[in-house]
Amino acid sequence: MTSLLHSGPFPARAIPASLPAGRNATRFVLRILKALALLLVLVVIAAAAWLFIRPPELLRVGDGYAAKIVCSNVFIAGREAEDVLHDDVQAPGNPLLRLVRVSVDRDNDRVTARFMGLFAPSYALYRGAFGCTSVPDGNFEAAANAVPFDPPAKVQANDALWPEGEGTGDRQDGKIAALLADTGVAGPAMRAIVVVRDGRIVTEAYAPGFSAKTPLIGWSMTKTVNATILGRLMLGGKISFDDDKLLAQWKNDARARIKVSDLLGMESGLAFNEDYGDVADVTRMLYLNPDMVSLPANAPMEAAPGQRFRYSSGTAVLLSRIWMDRVGNTQAAFSYPHDALFSPLGMTSAVFELDARGTFAGSSYLYATAHDWARFGQFLLQDGVWNGQRLLPEGFVGAMRTPTAASNGRYTQGQAWLAGPGDGSSAEAGLPEDTFWLTGHDGQSMAIVPSANLVVVRLGLTPSRLNYQPQVLLKAILAALPQSGAPQQQAGSQREAQPLP
Fold first, then answer.
1. What is the Cα–Cα distance from 63 to 269, expressed in whole angstroms?
2. How do residues 51-67 score in pLDDT, each as one tens digit?
3. Pick from 393, 344, 377, 386: which is nearest to 501 by CA?
4. C-alpha–C-alpha distance, residues 322 and 335, integer Å
5. 3-class DSSP state for residue 71?
6. pLDDT one-digit tens code per residue, 321-343
7. How far is residue 404's CA from residue 265's CA, in Å, rounded to a whole number?
8. Would you put residue 36 in left (φ > 0), alpha (ψ -120 to 50) or beta?
9. pTM of the full structure
10. Burial class of residue 460, CB neighbours in 10 A (0-12, 13-18, 19+)
11. Which run of H or E residues covers position 301?
12. If you average pLDDT over every residue of the chain, what do you get?
């Protein structure tokens, strides 16, 4: 034992002499670790306090988006909140959205979303026939009082053959149905496709969990519907393409020269940032401002009216405010989309949502079944005539098919597109040159082809990063359709649409 203790370069008594130094070193390390742990706790507490008191706009936008989308899909479409949160909000979106949690208060018709279930709370409120609205300021009383308590009467659907009712008969085209079953043609995460030929549904397809009765958001396809509602007012002489001095705060500056035609063609000259990749004008307007009109109405001029194309959701909201003011009566303005358009067309499912202060969200928020979206497309195909009655001025749909110079021929004079998503014209895509489009965020599209008497509606959740283009679907359908004679339109729509001056 003694030889083992004395073996090596150090004497035996040196070993216990070194222990106090080792203990001191250990204590020192422990003190450092404890200080670091305390510092980390303080940092976490400070960060939590910061997130709680002054959450970044990005988190507020994310929570606002989650609350609004969940609210509309739960209360309008009848879907489960967690399914909507996962499938519609988290799966296709920013990774931060995966940390968002939502709660649904059915007693008070509210949805709350919080980052990590704790921070940056944002709210949405269901207001019956007017759908849901984002309530970024948490003022539920103001949001509830912003819409009338006497909503328009809802027309019930019937079983007559579409478009008079919801029946589709036995005209399902097996060849086209096979195309719609091909993901490469229909696109990933397709939810609904309806093909209308010669005024009748020839084929339709739905993803699991969705049906002909499911209201689906059109996103920016809403812009074209909003423009059409303004067109209904034009028919009555209450507004025109050449009207200027459109808002009171514009009357004494350069914005007084902005005309309705400039707004419809996205050529107002107003600055507006439509970048969805970060907090921008469009996301502030939709999810941070209870009064959506305020942001675009106060935007500065960056070009003379008619000189520059800038795609702007703010422009569409301005058009909503302008036509609502022209209706002249507040109650009548709230009922106008239903009374002037949805009811005459039999769009019984349509829910056009408003902001928290009572302006229709003409940029984005119309929910309707695929059948009702197709009715709207058929209405445009028929030059604004329905059941023999002209509902739009002659030439208004022609404006929707007439390109603007500032957009290099891609956008039209009536909030529609001549070119589908992506690059290139219809002719370059191998499509009829008279094709025009409604398009929306995450893969919503409607193609209208007058020469083929065809409307194709495609709804889904297909982010642009997947690079799907609905031109593939339309081209395949055109190739599969049997040839027919001259387009068959309803009585009263014989005249070819011409652009308005």
1. 31
2. 556 679 999 999 999 99
3. 393
4. 15
5. helix
6. 999 999 989 999 999 999 999 99
7. 7
8. alpha
9. 0.88
10. buried
11. none
12. 89
